Amino acid sequence: MRQKFYSDSKYTLVEFWASWCGPCRENNLKWNNLLHTKSHALFRILGVSIDEDLNDWKNAIREDKLTDWAHISDLHGGFKGINALKYGINYVPFNILVDSTGKILKREVSVEELQTYLDN
Asked: Engineering a disulfide at 44: which of 5, 9, 81, 109 sits with its beta carbon 3.0 to 4.6 angstroms away?
């Protein structure tokens, strides 16, 4: 039986974003900078896209160098898509920090706040 993604690391940032979202794309760089200083055993990122266009989504992943992230998208409905509805996402960027058991530790964590979690 495969473990859940979040159980592979001490912390997982679930980052809701879209290729057309300027602030999301700016945050991607910040998250990448932090991710590249930590081990996967400590910290991982799951990108949840609300994009509706496959090519836009893939191009943003490539352009923002998000190759070390895990990615999912239903590519249907944007904010009315299954992932946005399931988690009550009405805007992006939005994120949720979870621990290795899946417990939500914080919503809308900043890079600085996450750094504090990772350093303790």
From this structure: 9
For domain 1-6+21-93, the CATH superfamily is Glutaredoxin (3.40.30.10)
Cα separation of 64 and 58, whole Å? 10
pLDDT in tens, 22-61: 999 999 999 999 999 988 789 999 999 999 999 999 999 9
| Contact assessment for residue 47 and residue 15, using Cβ atoms and an 8 Å cutoff | yes
The first and second tokens of residue 57, run together, are 């989504």
The H-assigned helical ranges of 8-88 are 22-35, 54-63, 82-87
Instruction: Determine whether 23 is exposed, middle or buried from the number of CB atoms within 10 Å of its CB (0-12, 13-18, 19+).
Output: exposed
pLDDT tens for 75-106 read 988 999 988 998 899 999 999 999 999 899 99
Do the bridges between strand 70-73 and strand 11-17 make them parallel or antiparallel, or are there none, so unpaired?
A: unpaired
- Domain borders along the chain are 1-6+21-93
